[in-house]
Amino acid sequence: MISIPKSSGLTACSQIVPAFRSQLVNVIPKKKPFVPKCKPGIHPLPTAAISACTGLTGGSQVRFSHTDVRVPDVDDYRRHGNVSNTDKNKGQEDAKLFTYLMAAGFGTAGVYAGKDVVYGVVSSISATKDILAMAKVEVSMADIPEGKTMIFKWRGKPLFIRHRTAEEIEAEQNVDLTTLRDPQHDTDRCKDPKFLICVGICTHLGCVPVAEAGDFNGYYCPCHGSHYDASGRIRKGPAPLNLDVPFYEYTEENSVVVG
Amino acid sequence: MNLQGLRKTLYKGIFQRTSTFVLACVVSAFAFERLVDVTGDQLFLFINTGKMYKDVEKKYAALAAGSEGEEEE
């Protein structure tokens, strides 16, 4: 089909031909050119010779490049289920899902591993069990006589536990909060009104107050003269805040665990 | 057909959005951890059947009660 006609000036050939040019020189083997399968609507490559007008002498023909070269067969490299151009995207859904499932699987493993790492780091920061055990103190309430304060050591600080009398409880619960420097009701400071548990460190400069002393018969700090009442609240003197109440819990058997 | 529907649901419901994708990762990590922990514990208990404290508890409780009784007497 592709041939070089007489009129053309081309003389390229692969065989020796006689010098006279009246005969048609057929240099290209007569083979049907490969035509790729295409969807309708998409223009295929040209199959016929393309002529181009080059000047006054008339039309000449140019061989369109490589239309007779076979397009390599890449079917072996295509995804299974997507072998030819016509059934496009048939196997794509499966492939996409597989990719996403793999990503999700690795993501899950990553989250699990990351959580383990974070857990390890955080638990290395937190206090160990023996430290935590030392940080608690258990006190039996039955040992404390009524009206008296007992001092225990808790985390290196003195801990006051006061067994209050009924009169003291009544007096502290009826205190007008507006008269207080650090207003706090007695019920907010004692889980059990019979016992006041507070840290025995003056909130002024950290001295240890004296129990059952002072103008309010609570605690009295001899360093600068701060008076606390029987609920450990500051009533008179330089201290700005009430005595600190630590976290504590009553257990059964009338004992308390502080810390 | 049913499988195809499942695939579609999986993709539309989870993988299409990054938010649901990440959420699915976190939830499945939680489930995975539980699964591993519970399976491990069960395996341990199965391998050590008869050796755990709850298996020998009665024996030692009886022993302790016996020795206490002796001391009291």
Give your account of this protein's structure:
The complex is a heterodimer of chains A (259) and B (73). The model of chain A is unreliable at 6-11 (pLDDT under 50). Chain A contains 4 helices and 12 strands, in the order ββααβββααβββββββ. Chain A has a 4-stranded antiparallel sheet with strand order 7-8-9-10, with no helix packed on it. A 3-stranded antiparallel sheet of chain A has the order 3-12-11, with no helix packed on it. Chain A has helices at 92-125, 129-134, 166-173, 186-189; strands at residues 50-53, 59-62, 137-140, 149-154, 157-163, 195-199, 210-213, 218-221, 226-228, 234-236, 248-251, 255-258. Helix content of chain A is 20%, strand content 20%. The radius of gyration of chain A is 50 Å and the shape is rod-shaped. Chain A is α+β, with helices and mostly antiparallel strands. Chain B has one domain (3-72): Cytochrome b-c1 complex subunit 9 (Single alpha-helices involved in coiled-coils or other helix-helix interfaces). Chain B has 3 helices and no strands. Chain B has helices spanning 2-15, 18-47, 53-72. Chain B is rod-shaped and about 70 Å long. Chain A binds chain B through residues 93-94, 96-97, 100, 103-104, 107-112, 115, and chain B through 4, 7-8, 10-11, 14-15, 21-22, 24-26, 28-29, 32-33. Chain B: This is Complex III subunit 9.
Summarize the structure.
Chain B: InterPro entries: QCR9 (IPR008027), QCR9_sf (IPR036656). The complex is a heterodimer of chains A (259) and B (73). Chain A is an alpha+beta fold and 259 residues long.
Per-chain topology:
The complex is a heterodimer of chains A (259) and B (73).
Chain A: E1 50-53, E2 59-62, H1 92-125, H2 129-134, E3 137-140, E4 149-154, E5 157-163, H3 166-173, H4 186-189, E6 195-199, E7 210-213, E8 218-221, E9 226-228, E10 234-236, E11 248-251, E12 255-258
Antiparallel strand pairs in A: 1-2, 3-12, 4-5, 5-6, 7-8, 8-9, 9-10, 11-12
Chain B: H1 2-15, H2 18-47, H3 53-72
